[in-house]
Specification:
alpha+beta; Lipocalin; 1 helix
């Protein structure tokens, strides 16, 4: 094999390995990045359509990217937030549920929700307490 061909193979190997190393580093830091949203949040919920209560205030806790209810929140919350702040959450109480989506940026966020079982939709705004 010529030295030119050897150099091309070496360059191809290095260039091919770079994206793999970058992807691995991004995946290894992704769980740590989700932790910057950790804390307790007040969530203000507004109903825009349907006969649900027009305004509610609930509490959630984010820990390690996982979302759960906290305090005297009347519905059970479960879900997650990714390192980019994208929120996917479900509130449940008895046989009713509401799907919540949106985004947190820094210490606050907003999005929308809908409940097929209650036939309601609306928006939410949240801010971190701690």
């Amino acid at each position: 094999m010529s030295s030119t061909a050897s150099l091309r193979l070496l360059a191809a190997g290095i260039l091919g390995a770079a994206p793999i190393g970058a992807a691995r580093a991004a995946n290894e830091s992704a769980p740590a990045a989700a932790h910057h949203f950790d804390g307790k949040y007040v969530v203000n919920i507004t109903t825009k359509h349907g006969s649900c209560h027009k305004h509610n205030h609930w509490m959630i806790l984010i820990s390690g990217g996982r979302i759960s209810s906290v305090g005297d929140t009347p519905m059970n919350a479960s879900g997650h937030i990714n390192p980019h702040g994208i929120v996917h959450l479900m509130f449940k109480r008895f046989h009713h549920h509401a799907t919540v989506t949106g985004r947190l940026i820094g210490r606050a966020g907003s999005g929308s929700w809908h409940s097929p079982s209650l036939e309601c939709t609306g928006s939410w705004h949240a801010h971190r307490l701690s």
